[in-house]
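Q: Structure tokens for this one, please.
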Amino acid sequence: MRKSYRPLYHVSVPFGWGNDPNGTIYYNGKAHLYYQHYPHKPQWGPMHWLHVTTEDFIHWQQRPVALYPDQPYEVCNGCCSGSAVEVDGKLWLMYTAAQPVMQRQCLAVSVDGGDHFEKFEGNPILTAEMLSEEIYEEDFRDPRIFKKGDTYYLLAGIRYLDEGKRKELPPVTNQKENTYPYMPAPDHVKEGWGNLCLLKGKDLFHWEYVGHLLYPQEEFSKEFYKLEGVYECPDYFVTDSGEEVLLSSPQNLPQEGDRFQNVHSTLYMLGKLDFETGQFKVRVIGEIDAGFDIYAPQTLRMPDGRVIMIAWKEMWDRNFPTTKEEWAGTYTLPRELSTDGDYLVQRPVREIQQFMTNPVSVEEKEIENESVEIEGIKGDVISLSFELDPGTSTKAGVKLFCDGKHETLVYYDRNTGKIVFDRSNSGIPFTGSEKDVNVRVCPIGPCEKVVMEFYLDVNSVEVFINGGRHVMTGNVYPDLDKDQGICFFAEGGKAVFRKIAKYDIEV
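A: Here is the predicted structure, written as tokens:
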């Protein structure tokens, strides 16, 4: 009998709190995932780095806590997000040591395969003052290191001061005894606009500022370079076809039509990075995931060339029902990334296929103005796929995690050309800072055929649409053990479901 909302084949924090993935890397024959962690309560606190490894992306081995906030320069916020890089067989982490009005970059090294780290005695190695007056020292974080030729490059999220110099900080008015001396005043106002910067160096210890990435382009809204927040957790990679991809998680990006419906978003940019100026010439801006629960995606490259992405499968400013179980924090099924024209294509990591058992298949099912169950198709730890011909229906899709009282709906609305993910009646209710925490839509346009591929895992829904050109991710909290049903439905006419396939996922 299931008694916990803990997923079975997704990474979840074992206790306390977990958020941003950090230090994703293939090293010493394994994929490594570090992530932000607070061990003492299921809520955000001074950040540690927790560590897991895998050889198949489904089974994850718990490793020791990699970083503790035990240095004076880490007081208040701890060891915040960053990345990993191998140099001469050693594994190095670069992370942000964060105080409320000062963020600086630090290094730590492991000689035992990535379990235990010694912090560099010269920390912090990077501050805004060292680099450029364009960088606002309060928002300079989440370093992502990569190498091109003999040169190391580093991306970081920043606030960019387009006036060319810092303004005086307001006086500290809320200073309390025995607290770190750099505490902001209650009315403290952030300066500048959210952006990203590029640094370069011949090693990990000496860095030169190249420039900021985002600049006005007529074809894109000014909101992308006048961001009231920071482009957090940047990532950069080049596909086999030569397409350059920039990932980031912009805070407070305003909604644009049906895109960016969460307060904090995840996006990809396709374009060209100028390594001499630091500017990224954007060709396409897209949303990584149109669902509810995804943030801070990070990638690693496998020996076979695959680029694998994993993200935090939660969202800021929401309730976390698992806090009653003394933990909060889950992560997406790892996804293989590629590009197709203007799309970032995401596919479930192929290793999941070896854990798919007990197949049930139906070649074709016509449904007209009703909701029906199909024998053998149910469960909460399964994969489910089908091709949908909307026909004359106005809405057609599936009801997941249903048993009369609860249901989670994912369907195609033919009148609007959108996929709708509705968790209004999914179980434990959600709260959050958005106007609507229960419904998300993903525009795909008029379609004679819609291909949907679902991965369910206790409290998790991930749906890959039309081969992974679109993805929607969301957590739900149905009645455990009870809400196992799946129904196929059509409204306003007839729809045809073809090539229905369901598998249990046994790990």
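A few notes: Confidence is low (pLDDT under 50) at residues 169-182. Residues 120 and 130 are 18 Å apart (CA to CA).
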